[in-house]
Automatic annotation (TrEMBL):
Leader sequence residues: none
Keywords, sorted A to Z: Transferase
Pfam families on file: Hexapep
Gene3D superfamilies, A to Z: Hexapeptide repeat proteins (2.160.10.10)
Protein name: CatB-related O-acetyltransferase
UniProt cross-references to InterPro entries, sorted A to Z: Hexapep (IPR001451), Trans_hexapeptide_repeat (IPR050179), Trimer_LpxA-like_sf (IPR011004)
GO molecular function, one term: transferase activity
Source domain of life: Bacteria
Annotated organism of origin: Roseburia porci
Keyword Metal-binding: no
Amino acid sequence: MVYTIAIAPYSVKKIENCLCQYQEYPKYKLFSIDKESYIVNATIENSDEGQIPVGRLIYNLQIGRYCSIAKDLYIIVGRGKNYHNVTMSAAKVFESLHKGYNDHGEHGSVIIQNDVWIGNKVTIMGGVIIHNGAVVAANSHVVKDVPPYAIVGGNPAKVIGYRFEKNIIQQLQKIQWWYWNEEKIKKYAEDFGEVEKFCKQFYLEADEQINKIKDLGCSDDKDRYLMLVDDDDNYSILSYVIDEFLACFKKDKNKELLLIVLNKEPQTDDMVMENIKKIQHIMEENNAFECTLSVEKVSFEEVKNYIPFIKHLIINRKTETVQLMCWAEVYGDNVEIISGVDTPIFGGY
């Protein structure tokens, strides 16, 4: 399917979700966009020639805060082919060769974090994360992640410079001004000019708060994966993540999947907790499983307390995803980001 979108400047005051319909899949989230971001116009092309696993959407587009996206952005997700076959043709005669995502895998996520500037006529492919503060030059073709505060350009897009020195970038990553409340941003708006002065003013306080959380981290050897339970998604990936985790790691006693249920809607949350506990009980009674499945129910703010204990973050279509990724970068230690909408999820392809 091909969708055309435009989001006017100054129109997004809080995170918004755009729901669409794809074939027999109504009300799936085409994208989310957070406050003060805009898109002059963009085209989103997704799906593998109409072939998707039943009930599952290999797709996740999220845009953080204060992003400026110019004309003619083009995002392509889920249009891959199995190029290991003799032919990649979609001709009817070869229909039996093509089994959708099951035979070649797909990267489904495109994440644009915060304060990103994307120029005219940029193309972004599935599997890309454009990190905070990055600049993507006009006419670029982005096929790999863009580092924080990098300036990239070309086809394929390559790093041609950075906006600031490394130590300044590290400080800005910790300050994360885009998550300040509106009153604080208004109060200090005139200080957003000179970057070194800005960092000198706000870095120490941010670093102190981060260290308080990081000091909670333990020295256990658990290879821990964390995911927010997406019970509010019409096409939740929870069952796929659990199934694939158990299939990949059932004999690895060092592996743990930590599922976080956000304390939002008590009745729904309680049902999710109960279902997960049933799976835990089955695992405990079955000697075939040596990995661990854990579940916690907390507020989103409390999630940051778990990040020093994890090595992997599984992302999904939750609206908290971009902020959670930013937390992982500062509260964690080289936390790996895994797209839970990909196929396969673990191990790549």
